[in-house]
Amino acid sequence: MITKAQKIRLGIFISAALIIFLAAIAALSLERFFQEKDVYHISYKDVSLTGLDAGSSVKYLGLNVGTVTSIAIDPEDISRIIVTIAVKQGTPVKNDLEAEISTIGITGIKVIELRGGTNEADLLEPGSYIKAGKSLTEQITGKAEVIGEKVELLLNNLIELSKSENRKKFTALMDRTSSIAENLDILLKENNRKINSSIANLDKTLQHLAGAGASSEAAISSVESFIQSDSLRTTLNDIAQIADKLNKANIYNLDEQLNVAVDRLNHMLTQMDLFLTLNLNKFNQSIEGLNETISHLNSAARQIDEDPSVLIGGSKPKDPPDEELEQ
User: Are residues 123 and 195 in the same domain?
Assistant: First the structure.
């Protein structure tokens, strides 16, 4: 059985706990109530604020920085709604900031979202008006208008294309395209061998030209290798040394060295003359092959210029040999 003293102690404990709980709530409320805040106003014109009430949150880039303190109709313009917000003191509210109305989740609860603002812009003085941003409804409406204009333009183009005149033109164009494709197919089938023969002749001509170029390159390479040979370098070095000695010493004392250098130079010229003689025939053959190839190309170009149909029909040689004599 509970005694009277136990009841008294239980009552004192419950009372103390209740007092502590109320004191904590009061402390939190007083701290929030007496916290310094900056007040700003936002003017919305012809915008529905359904879901936005006093006490709704004010967010800055997703962070909760204040609340909506009041919502009232502008007595001077009944199409305007004045929303007053209170944000934490020190919140960087720039003069190029915009206040948009956003919706949280699917509940329909709306909040004020502060967006934009640059570091270079000046801070907005408390009590001033923040620029109203576009609401979600306005954004959806704007996009719907753009989509509607594009759909209307597409339908107008379809209607224009579906006219009887355009249908006839399109049908005629398709018929002409089909006819051209058929004629081209017939032409290719009839002249397939001639086209292949022309391509083969052109391939041979290019091969001859490549061979002539390779021969010329080989001859030039041989000349370059001789010019870069050690004997030529040695001779040139000797001449340079002799010229240097002529500048520093008596010319009569260098007669013997000069004679030696002249002998070496004569020997080198003899070797060069022999080398050029040996390679002259190859070089002349390369030049003749190149000239012959160029002549064939010029002849082919003149034939094409005189009769462009030779590309499809091929060319017939003049005075063809009698096939019976060949047999």
Answer: no
Token code pair at residue 323: 């096939």
Own/partner long-range contacts of 142-151 (Cβ < 8 Å, ≥24 apart): none
The token pair at 220 is: 């030039």
pLDDT in tens, 163-188: 777 777 778 888 888 888 888 778 77
Q: How far is CA 161 from CA 83, 172, 174, 228, 232, in A?
A: 52, 14, 15, 76, 82
Q: Which two tokens stand for residue 210?
A: 């490549």
3-state secondary structure string, 218-250? Answer: HHHHHHHHHHCCHHHHHHHHHHHHHHHHHHHCC
Tokens of 238: 């000797």
pLDDT score of 41: 92
Range of the domain at 277: 191-313
Question: What is the total count of domains within the chain?
Answer: 2
Q: Report the distance separating Cα 247 and Cα 235, nearest Å.
A: 19
